[in-house]
């Protein structure tokens, strides 16, 4: 809370708080949505400022991992007054069901959004087993 004794003291207090906030540079953690759609699911990650070439999508066991890096265009300039935009390496992981068909996972990157399509494996039908 700011106390308004004089305009000068108000500004001094305000910028002291801004300087305190600017000390820690935020890291980049992309926002993600997992949406159920007809025929499967879609995982969407917002990756503004990230090049397609710096993103890697990998499936290992039942874990889908998205890794990459958002470069800091101002890395050489250390005179920030305030820093709210995150930069750096990131990893997002999603534990998937055994029912996902690994061979049909597809990913596309367009306008700063990565979309990963997941489809279920074909269900193995049940059959009656005759008892002899």
Description of the molecule:
The protein has one domain: Sandwich (Immunoglobulin-like). A four-stranded antiparallel β-sheet has the order 1-2-7-6, with no helix packed on it. It is elongated, with a radius of gyration of 24 Å. The relative contact order is 0.21. It contains one helix and seven strands, in the order αβββββββ. A hairpin with a 2-residue loop joins strand 1 and strand 2. It is mostly beta strands and 132 residues long. The model is unreliable at 19-23 (pLDDT under 50). The protein has one helix spanning 7-22; strands at residues 32-37, 40-46, 56-60, 63-70, 88-95, 106-110, 113-118.
Write the layout of secondary structure elements.
Blueprint: H1 7-22, E1 32-37, E2 40-46, E3 56-60, E4 63-70, E5 88-95, E6 106-110, E7 113-118
Antiparallel strand pairs: 1-2, 2-7, 3-4, 4-5, 6-7
Task: Give the ordered list of helices and strands.
Answer: HEEEEEEE
- Uncertain runs are 19-23
CATH topology: Immunoglobulin-like
User: Strands of the largest sheet, in order across it?
Assistant: 1-2-7-6
CATH architecture: Sandwich
Shape: elongated
Computed CA radius of gyration, to the nearest angstrom: 24 Å
Helix-strand makeup class: mainly beta
Give the biggest sheet: 4 strands, antiparallel
Q: Total domains, how many?
A: 1
Give the CA-CA distance, first to last residue: 82 Å
β-strand number: 7
- Put simply, the count of helices is 1
């Amino acid at each position: 809370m700011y106390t308004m004794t004089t305009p000068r003291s108000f500004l001094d207090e305000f910028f002291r708080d801004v300087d305190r906030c600017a000390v820690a540079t935020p890291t980049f953690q992309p926002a993600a949505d997992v949406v159920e759609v007809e025929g499967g699911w879609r995982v969407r990650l917002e990756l503004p400022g990230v090049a397609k070439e710096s993103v890697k999508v990998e499936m290992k066991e039942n874990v889908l991992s998205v890794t990459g890096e958002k470069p800091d265009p101002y890395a050489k300039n250390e005179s920030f007054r305030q820093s709210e935009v995150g930069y750096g390496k990131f990893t997002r992981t999603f534990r998937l069901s055994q029912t996902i068909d690994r061979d049909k996972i597809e990913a596309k990157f367009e306008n700063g959004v990565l979309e990963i399509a997941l489809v279920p494996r074909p269900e193995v039908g049940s059959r009656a087993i005759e008892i002899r």
